[in-house]
Amino acid sequence: MRISICCTDTKPEPWLAGLQAALPQAEVSVWAPGAPAADYAVVWAPPQQFLDEQPHIKALFNIGAGVDALMQRNLPPEALVVRLDDAGMSVQMAEYVCHALIRHFREFDQYEADVAQGKWSYRRPRLRRDCPVGIMGLGVLGQRVAQAVAQFEFPVLGWSRSAKQLTGVQCFAGDATLPAFLSRTQVLVCLLPLTEDTRGILNRQTLSQLRPGGYLIHVARGGHLVEQDLLTLIDQGHLAGATLDVFQTEPLPGGHVFWQHPKIIVTPHTSARTLRDESIAQIVGKMLALECGEPVAGVVDRGRGY
Ligand code: NDP
Ligand code: OXD
């Protein structure tokens, strides 16, 4: 079995060593132009030339959960596209979202500012029932986040494409239910894949449907958010602020208004990192399953784009 590694912005050597150790019988290499075609590839935003050189590859294993960068390429028509299926990401995402939610809800930034000025002052406690948390995307990550938020006894709502029944989550499905979902939501968490249907979905029209004083936690992809619309709604006082992990342009350009905005918290696309060992174990397990003709989880539906 020949395995090629082609990952933009990622040091390939540890992946090479890990894959080779797990599959000593395989021939694993880091792609260079003109290298022999592979049976399987481990990829992140690979150049088109790599894909053009793999007309008969069996599967492309994306080393992230989101496949939007890959889906923009011309893919070998027969290849399975397989994304990471949790592999240690959902617990990180639950930590990140709960941290952002509780920091906002409990006003910890205000307390920190007061304490910095030597002030011992109380703020009126907020009530959970006044802070329903709406999660867009109830997939691998969204469901884990929903469970974690529910553990803190916030009312939880979720929105997905297909109908779901999840304990402790009021579920909405499909475009027609989006207004009802948004209008009941105080803190909105975006965990959608970036597709033709979801690009720009966080815009003035949708965000203005959140309850007054709403808050956004955006951890999916920069392409979901119309950044100027968020700023306008914060400036107008309809939204209280946002925690943003992803941006239209990454790294966030120097001088971008988000860096210094008092109501926006920025993190550098780090809410759920790819964990190499877990990911290699998952990918290797799937390669072996495919070699035996068995089905694997996390296969992308090319028509839907996720
Ligand atoms: P999944 O594919 O498991 O879940 C996607 C969810 O979105 C599903 O519930 C799906 O609905 C829903 N969805 C997709 N399209 C629509 C639509 N048009 N309308 C309504 N709902 C829709 O993905 P994951 O949970 O694993 O990951 C989600 C995203 O998180 C990734 O695509 C990636 O962009 C982002 N991510 C960000 C990271 C970071 O560090 N910031 C790290 C990892 C991922 P249905 O269930 O009906 O199919
Ligand atoms: C991912 C990411 O999609 O890291 O896994 O954003």
In round numbers, the mean pLDDT is 98
State the fourth-level CATH superfamily of the largest domain: NAD(P)-binding Rossmann-like Domain
Bound molecules: NADPH dihydro-nicotinamide-adenine-dinucleotide phosphate, oxalic acid
Beta content: 15-25%
Q: How many angstroms does the end-to-end distance come to?
A: 27 Å
Which architecture of the largest domain does the CATH hierarchy give at level 2?
3-Layer(aba) Sandwich
Residue share in helices?
Answer: 25-40%
Q: For this structure, what is the CATH class of the largest domain?
A: Alpha Beta
What name does CATH use for the topology of the largest domain? Rossmann fold
How many distinct beta strands?
A: 12
Would you write up a description of this structure?
Helix content is 32%, strand content 18%. The chain has helices at 12-22, 48-52, 68-71, 89-105, 108-116, 140-151, 178-183, 204-207, 227-235, 257-260, 276-291, and strands at 2-7, 27-30, 40-44, 59-62, 80-82, 133-136, 156-160, 169-173, 187-190, 214-218, 239-244, 264-266. It has a 7-stranded parallel β-sheet with strand order 8-7-6-9-10-11-12. The chain has a 5-stranded parallel β-sheet with strand order 2-1-3-4-5, with helices on one face. By secondary structure, the chain is α/β, with parallel strands linked by helices. Helix 9 (227-235) links the parallel strand 10 and strand 11. It folds into 2 domains: 2-87 and 274-291, 3-Layer(aba) Sandwich (Rossmann fold); 89-266, NAD(P)-binding Rossmann-like Domain (Rossmann fold, 3-Layer(aba) Sandwich), CATH 3.40.50.720. The structure holds NADPH dihydro-nicotinamide-adenine-dinucleotide phosphate and oxalic acid. Residues 65-66, 89, 137-142, 159-162, 191-195, 197-198, 219-221, 245-246, 269, 271-272, 306 line the site of NADPH dihydro-nicotinamide-adenine-dinucleotide phosphate (NDP).
